[in-house]
Amino acid sequence: METAEQLKRQIESTQSLRDLVGTMKMLAVTNIRRYQEAVDALGNYFGVIEQGLQIALSKHRGTPTTWERQPSEKDGELAVVVFGSDQGLCGRFNEQMVDHVRETLVNTFDGQRPARILCIGMRPTILLQNAGFKVDREFAVPGFPTGVTRVTQEIVFAIEEWVSVENIEKVHIFHNELIRGSFYRPNDLKLLPLDADWFTRYEEKEWPNKRVIPTFTMEAEQLISSLVLQYFFFSVYRAAVESLATENAARLMSMQAAEKNIEERLEELKMTANQVRQNSITAELLDIVGGYEALGGNKMKLPEPEGGACRLPAG
User: Fold this and answer.
1) What pTM, to 2 d.p., does this model score?
2) 17-260 maps to which CATH number?
3) Phi, psi of 190 (to 5 degrees)
């Protein structure tokens, strides 16, 4: 049985751990809100890209562009970008992501192994390597917001090189996304190929104000290529921010479970401490009673006062 002093130290340590977990919970909640606001703000940016594509393609109908490819899931080389985390304390965040990558390769690409794999985060890199995949490049999980911009630019440059130099035709982005609250699920985005239907969607879209239609002076194909790269930037940036939000949501769930376990442990320690204290009090009382009985208890004679017995005064 642990001593009262040992139990007191354990209770103090557990309370400190509970405070730390509470702080991590609040930090995760704050980060989730911040990243979700960033995702919402990206909507305006994507709207500008769509409008630019709409105008450029309206002047470039029927002419193939640099980025246009025929839709194909089985032919051509494949490259994937996988978003994960560097830090732990987020449950099966990375394991679920890597499991989803493996399932997609089997179900969508008939087991085709990617020619290039780019990972954001140390933990998915290790998991993929343990599963027998070769990771060509790894980035640390970026800080927000400047770090996300830098890493996104690096990824877009890599995609542009894959397509132009290595003749890779398919690029998929894998990341976790929030569903509601702190619940999330793995998601994958087909970045390439951009088939004819993708371009036709913007070609046929009506401009909201036909009286004022923007124009441009640069070559249409050059403008479209630039806008497509901006579309890639938007898609990768959004995947990065959603992954960061989801990582914090996963960490929040882990901290909630940890907090529950800590509270249960703290209650158990307090009950044990109370029991030890009660046992100590009981032992002390038994020692007093035992000592009293050893001295004779009620049979013990009290000394008479000096001068004989004490008498009460008469009447």
Assistant:
1) 0.82
2) 3.40.1380.10
3) -80, 105
